[in-house]
Design brief:
single chain; Rossmann fold; Serine Threonine Protein Phosphatase 5, Tetratricopeptide repeat; 7-stranded mixed sheet; 6-stranded mixed sheet; 18 helices; DhaK_dom; Dihydroxyacetone_Kinase; ATP binding; glycerone kinase activity
Amino acid sequence: MKQFINTRETLVTEAINGTLRTAGGRLARLDGYPHIKVVIRTDWDKSKVALVSGGGSGHEPSHAGFVGQGMLTAAVCGEVFASPSVDAVLAGILAVTGRAGCLLIVKNYTGDRLNFGLAAERARAQGLKVSMVVVDDDVALPDLPQPRGVAGTLFVHKIAGALAEQGADLDAVTEAAHRVIKGVVSIGMSLDTCTIPGSPKEDRIPHGKAELGLGIHGEAGIEQVEFSSAREAMEMVVDRLAPNIGPGPKVALLNNLGSATPLEMAVLAEELIRSRIGDQIRWLVGPAPLMTSLDMRGFSVSLLSATKADEAALVAPVGPWAWPGCLPVGEVAVEPLPDGLTPIQPIPSKNAATRDFIERCCRILIEAESDLNALDAKSGDGDTGSTLATAARALIGALDRLPLADQTQLYRAIGLELSQTMGGSSGVLLAIFFAAAGDASAAGQDPNGALKAGLDRVQQVGGARVGDRTMIDALMPALEALQNGLAAAASAARAGADSTAKITQARAGRASYLAAESLAGHNDPGAEAVARLFENLC
């Protein structure tokens, strides 16, 4: 798989340097590359308890992204998914620990426990006060004697970091960390595995499946489950978390494991709050990439039974850029539309033949959704089919309130409906098309004349003409031939749509941004949609 790296051997050191370039002098690294990779605060005076964490790289922004005021004092970074060495951990401890002592926050993996543990012993032998807590928040494997440490570790960083910043002693900070660890649970789900730099991608999750309870190092989950929607995915995650939490308010942390889009993560946040435990969630951290697994297309949820003091610690301001904040969960605020935008609803009327015709048109576009998306993906962003199908479904849902017996008002009502339900420039252009057709119909034009008037208005506003590789290449000849019957219109639309495959210089629409080789041999998806509509109506 292609990746923006130079070499596997220099990946982590170069990434750390790149991070520090924009730290504004607040962060630095210890000398000792490549074996010692430690990021520390430069504004640290050792008068307070130091917090040191770390582990393998590949979980960015963890751990270096959380170094700063109010969170970690130092992050010890290993190679990708590999524990840092004992010497590297010891270097981090020695660099930041003063008389107040140091707390090591370690995720429950054998390598991390051993290396951090031995480094702690060596630091103690040098007279330093060092305590260590081990985070084991993963509930994916309930019978596992040593549960893994995953994204719930961030709660420990934040709460312990706030106490240390306030001047609490090592015993108090350590006790709080233990209490948080006892109260946090986590589990993750992914649609795909991660890609380890320099290695071939493991393809173990088949299409239509998701993996539940997988680890942050790409370890296989406890089971592969059927995947159909964000709602069902969140329900499965909640089902695993719910038996491990008691009553009372919770703080949730919604973590992007790497390559889920912000749009997807926002949907997952909505589903988490709407879930059966949603009424317990008072605060939410994220959704954000917090403890990732390289490019894994998944998410995890961590829940903490937090005290009022914990909540105060979680909302306390911090320096690290990667902390997204802990925000209260509330209702969705809805304001009324301003005057002038509230649509005037037409008076509904019935006409069985018109209703059947509109529904047939809509069904044709819905059935063509995947084909049109695939065609659009060759020369656009792959959403033409979905855009048309979404509008078609909305139009079917609106049939009972449309003036089906009044053709003039029907054109206008369809235009209004499309302007509200159909996205992108296509929705605007078709809304203009039907609004103009309504005006022409009111002036006495027959249906064919009204539709031609609508197309003229679209050309005036949109600027496209025949030959510009748009839906007009099929729609214009179809309307010209419609006076000779529907079959003639379908034939003309097909010829127009097929001609767009030979047009390699689009002059309108998103295709105008593409090179000739991306367009050659592929019909314009809008023109193809018009051709399929007329052909299927025949």
